[in-house]
Amino acid sequence: MRTMLVCLLLVSFGFAEDKIETNIVYGKAGDRELKLDMAVPPVGKGPFPVVVCVHGGGWRMGNRKDMHPWLPVLAERGFVAVSVGYRLAPDYQFPSQIEDCKTAVRFLRANAEKYHIRKDRFGVMGYSAGGHLVALMGLTDAKDGFEGKQYPEESSIVQCVVDYFGPTDLAAFGKDDTAQRSMLSPLMGGSYKEKAADHDKASPITHVKKDAPPFLIFHGTKDWIVPIEQSRMLADKLKKAGANVTYVEVPDESHGWTGKAGKETTSKTIEFLKDYLMK
Predict the structure, then answer these.
(1) pLDDT of residue 228
(2) pLDDT digits over 102-112, tens only?
(3) Which of 83, 128, 185, 231 is catalytic?
(4) Which residue is catalytic, options 156, 219, 223, 231?
(5) Is 128:3 a contact under the CB 8 Å cutoff?
(6) What is the mean pLDDT of residues 129-152?
(7) What is the pLDDT averaged over residues 46-66?
(8) At the top level of CATH, which class does the domain 17-277 belong to?
(9) Catalytic residue list contains 252
């Protein structure tokens, strides 16, 4: 099943594509180089807060260029904007994907002076499978075993999360046979029946805690790929835990949207990131 990426109406003020620095190596997995792309604010010397963007694609498709439209929008508003590439299933199974995303955060902290970064102001945002990964980035720490081994002196903790329709309970998501066959089994190396504990550990709802960073969650009411209940469950559990969560349902929209809804969710995303990263 091919995941349809959200298409948002983003307003840029003439930020040139050649201002995006590409192919920055942030780590290695065996002989494979892991890469990210970056845009920095066109004015000011920093240090600047960071927003790390994580693409979707069912954990097995897509690439970091899918998030390039966000980079100039964020950079022009004072953020160092980063799009992260990560290892894809089925060649690489979980937790490779979350280890890569966390490694990217630690790499950026290790190189904060070079890239004019505020080490204490990291936000993350992602769509679909990327939403799942950023939710895990917000809810897990070293004790959960997803850190990998690179840049161990740096933290992967983030200060806020924007989750666009990410799967949050892989057991429930896997009840759909198509999702199980096309996405979850390649990701997890087996079905829920075969690897229940692994599916549960990979589910953001398993890691909800009161001291979670602020969350902003979007989901279309007619999403036919990731059921809206996935976001409702996470938002409800965060609220019950006493965490800071804003949950927005987008009426009559599916697994992505444009037009007025795109304008509104983009605006809410920018304001949320400003509120929690620029104070």
Answers:
(1) 98
(2) 999 999 999 99
(3) 128
(4) 223
(5) yes
(6) 96
(7) 97
(8) alpha beta
(9) no
Q: What's the sign of the alpha-carbon dihedral 134, 144, 245, 231?
A: positive
Rounded to two decimals, what is the model's pTM? 0.95
What CA–CA distance (Å, rounded) separates 118 from 136? 22
- Residue 6: pLDDT band by 50, 70, 90 thresholds? very low
CA distance 102 to 167: 18
255 assigned to active site: yes
pLDDT for residue 19: 82
- The verdict on whether omega for the bond into residue 47 sits within 30 degrees of 0, i.e. cis, is yes
**What's the confidence (pLDDT) of residue 180?**
85
d(Cα 246, Cα 269) in Å, to the nearest integer? Answer: 11
Residue where the block lists tokens 């769509």:
127
pLDDT score for 17: 62
- Read off the pLDDT of residues 190-229 as tens digits, 9 standing for 90 and up: 998 899 999 999 999 999 999 999 999 999 999 999 999 9
- Annotated active-site residue 223? The verdict is yes
Nearest to 202 by CA among 217, 183, 219: 183
- pLDDT confidence of 40, banded at 50, 70, 90? very high
Supply the DSSP string of the chain, one letter for each residue: -PPPPP------SS--GGGSEEEEEEEEETTEEEEEEEE--SS----EEEEEEE--STTTS--GGGGTTHHHHHHTTT-EEEEE----TTTS-TTHHHHHHHHHHHHHHHTHHHHTEEEEEEEEEEETHHHHHHHHHHH--GGGT---SSSTTS----SEEEEES----HHHHTTSHHHIIIIIHHHHTS-TTTSHHHHHHT-GGGG--TTPPPEEEEEETT-SSS-HHHHHHHHHHHHHHT--EEEEEETT-BSB--HHHHHHHHHHHHHHHHHHH--
Instruction: Summarize the confidence of residues 127-148 as an average pLDDT.
Output: 97
